[in-house]
Amino acid sequence: MAKTAPNLCFPPLNLNQNRRENLFLSKNGCFIQKPSSKTTLLSPIFSSCTPIRISASPARSIDYQLTDYNVKILRFCELGNLHNAMELLCLSEKSELEPRTYTSVLQLCAGLKSLTDGKKVHSIVNSNNVVLDELLGSKLVSFYATCGDLKEARRVFDGMGKKNVYLWNFMVSEYAKTGDFKESIRLFKMMVERGIEVNSYTFSCVLKCLAALGGLKNGECVHGYLLKLGFGCCNSVVNSLISFYFKGRRPESACELFDKLTDRDVISWNSMISGYVSNGLAQRGLEIFKEMLRLGVEVDSATIVSVLVGCANSGILSLGKAVHALAIKSCFERRINFSNTLLDMYSKCGDLDGALRVFEKMGERNVVSWTSMIAGYTRDGQSDGAIRLLQQMEKESVKLDVVAITSILHACARSGSLDNGKDVHDYIKANDMESNLFVCNALMDMYAKCGSMEDANSVFSSMAVKDIISWNTMIGGYSKNCLPNEALKMFAAMLEELKPDSRTMACILPACASLSALERGKEIHGHILRNGYSSDRHVANALVDLYVKCGVLGLAQLLFDMIPSKDLVSWTVMIAGYGMHGFGNEAITTFNEMRDEGIEPDEVSFISILYACSHSGLLEEGWRFFYIMKNDFNIEPKLEHYACMVDLLSRTGYLSKAYEFIETMPIAPDATIWGSLLCGCRIYHDVELAEKVAERVFELEPENTGYYVLLANIYAEAEKWEEVKRMRERIGRKGLRKNPGCSWIEIKGRVNLFVSGNNSHPQSKKIESLLKKLRRKMKEDGYFPKTKYALIDADEMQKEMALCGHSEKLVMAFGLLTLPPRKTIRVTKNLRVCGDCHEMARFMSKETGREIVLRDSNRFHHFKDGYCSCRGFW
DNA sequence: TTAGGGTTAG
């Protein structure tokens, strides 16, 4: 009370002689007015006041006014009038000024953060040759530090003779405040070297600095030192140690200290809760909280905050709600930051309604509250709700910051809303946020996920500063958007600029996989091994996928077996791999193993297993999985699942059942589903059903040439040349062009692409002659070319010529000519392999003793000794 | 003359 109350009864500024007898000088050198006899409340202060000896003579009193600058300056200081205090200080003679006057003015300068005035005081101190004693020195140091001139503070500090432990601690903590923890530690070492008697404050600050520096070993040394000095039982020091060990990711050491701490206060308990929560051990943190309640330890707002974060991280809504009630009781919930934490707890626990209730009840909201809600909707898959909130934010003129922008971009990316994303981009431009790295990375990600790699690239090109995330986003974006060549180019450019990381590997491998670029993939695999990225599960899964898609199933299996803790993706990739290669039974065994491991399949793993069943003709098993998915796992079948089932029925010849199945589907079938049945009609030569089905397909996808060609082929195989002609005319009328078939083969890391019918390759002549030679031998062996597939109503010779030009044949011949003997020929085709080419590949494998692995748009065909792994299911 | 250790979301 004595420190603040005197201000309440100050006299007016201009000293009134008549009232002087009422003035007293307080202990800290300030004038205070003597209270009237009625004032009893402040009377205790006066017991500590010394009356100033003031003569009643008018002459002496004038003399006082002229000479005692100290008193006047002190009075101005007390009034906060720095201007007048400075003016008087400048007017005063050295001999008139007392040390206390300088310190008071300096304190005011610090309070008002007036660096200029404080510097002036400092220069007066210097020019008056005033000795910097402990007090004046401390004031100068703290003045400079408070005004942000830590360098000058340090200069004064270093120039001082005797310094007490407070001032040393002050400097240590000032460096820590600016983030210069190393300098803090250097000072601490100086303290120890100079024999300064450190105290508990020193250790609190030093341990915080060491935690920030990640100096676990140094911290342990300090721990030993403080024990030696006898601070091992000091509650505040042990609390600091607990926090230090938690920050150093050593919860067990923190726990040991807490267990031994007899004098626990609320900070000790809170340190344990928040320490566990921030170490990803929220459940243990919550247990500490329960123990705290059990023992009747009083909780405070910091306890509640940490517990809420713990509930959010572990998804324990019930406890979160109970703590919410406790917060209401304690009136904590009225503060905005607290409400935001609460809101986030509900949102992360999946209770969006609860989050919304907090949000709506909040008296004041800031951008964090809004962003929290947006993130909640996005997390819940309700991107539309997130975008609606953005519009509401705009209406309420809430200014978006970087985090808000990135959250909204994330919502747009999740929902694939390119238009909304572009609006956000406009906002970014209008608000000068284009140079922010985080914003740019999120923008690129949004464009990539919305399928616009052109826009993503334009953001990328305009970035002055790029980090590894920028590069990875672009590479991953190209890979996922079926632009593997661009991904590889970007990867090559990245290598010129910076070292890739494990995430880069997981982004580039799918590009190699989609190109079946085995050699490039192997190069990257080598890089992964050299850099120790194989333990990254994303990388390991991508490697399995790479070898699956490059047709090296054995290696994929080996790598899969080597993954120590397989996740759902690892299993799903392997199941799909077996399916793609026609190993349906192996896929089923793998699926069962996954369930034995306690991993629950999701809708994607069911697509993989159903796909595997359909590509191996496993009808009964397929139905069983379809049933299990719906009934045991409560997964509502999606179009992809129905497509697999239709495919399975069609491939196994149950065409009318497939038709019925489509008609009774609870969701509208798309062209792919009808297309599967159309393929079945082709396999089983059901022209009548094919016509019925084809019309449904044409309605849904009138522009897709593939389906017109498919029907034309069905007609051609039935030798209905009139209908083939009709189809060709229909295609011609619509101005549609058949998608050109192309195939490629990677030789020495280079992808060699062949387009059907194109003979511009430098080795064309050699290829042609090899194919003719092979064809002759095949005929001798009783092989008749499947000329039906030529789709041309011409004479047999012409048809055979047309078939010779199919891209997969050209590539296979090129492979035979170029690759060393016994090397497997690996071919990839953009469309489904044609029947004639399939026959020829079978023959080639027998005739040349070569293994041929052909990946078409649908599956793998392994040709060996005249047999194909697809067993006719393709 | 003065201080520290626990908490706050997107």
Throw out a few tags for this protein.
874 residues, 6-stranded mixed beta sheet, 3-stranded antiparallel beta sheet, 65% helix, DNA-binding, mRNA binding
- What structural class results from the helix and strand content? mainly alpha
Strand order of the largest sheet: 5-4-6-7-8-9
- Determine the mean pLDDT: 86
The biggest beta sheet is recorded as: 6 strands, mixed
* Shape label: elongated
- Total beta strands: 9
| Uncertain regions spanning at least 5 consecutive residues | 1-66
How much of the sequence lies in strands comes to under 5%
Secondary structure: helix percent: 55-70%
Radius of gyration based on Cα positions:
40 Å
Number of helices: 46
Distance between the termini: 91 Å
Please summarize what this structure is.
The protein is mostly helical and 874 residues long.
Secondary structure elements and pairings:
Elements: E1 23-25, E2 31-33, H1 43-46, E3 50-51, H2 58-67, H3 69-79, H4 82-91, H5 99-111, H6 115-127, H7 134-146, H8 150-159, H9 165-177, H10 181-193, H11 200-213, H12 216-228, H13 235-247, H14 251-260, H15 266-278, H16 282-294, H17 301-314, H18 317-329, H19 336-348, H20 352-361, H21 367-379, H22 383-395, H23 402-415, H24 418-430, H25 437-449, H26 453-462, H27 468-480, H28 484-497, H29 502-515, H30 518-531, H31 537-549, H32 553-562, H33 568-580, H34 584-596, H35 603-615, H36 619-631, H37 639-651, H38 655-663, H39 671-683, H40 687-700, H41 705-717, H42 721-733, E4 742-747, E5 750-755, H43 764-780, H44 796-804, H45 807-818, E6 825-829, H46 835-848, E7 852-855, E8 860-864, E9 867-868
Parallel strand pairs: 6-7
Antiparallel strand pairs: 1-2, 1-3, 4-5, 4-6, 7-8, 8-9
Helix pairs in contact: 3-4, 3-5, 4-5, 5-6, 5-7, 7-8, 7-9, 8-9, 9-10, 9-11, 10-11, 11-12, 11-13, 13-14, 13-15, 14-15, 15-16, 15-17, 16-17, 17-18, 17-19, 19-20, 19-21, 20-21, 21-22, 21-23, 22-23, 23-24, 23-25, 24-25, 25-26, 25-27, 26-27, 27-28, 27-29, 28-29, 29-30, 29-31, 30-31, 31-32, ...
The structure holds one DNA strand of 10 nucleotides.
Protein name: DEFECTIVELY ORGANIZED TRIBUTARIES 4
PPR repeats: 164-198, 265-299, 366-400, 436-466, 467-497, 567-601
Domain DYW: 782-874
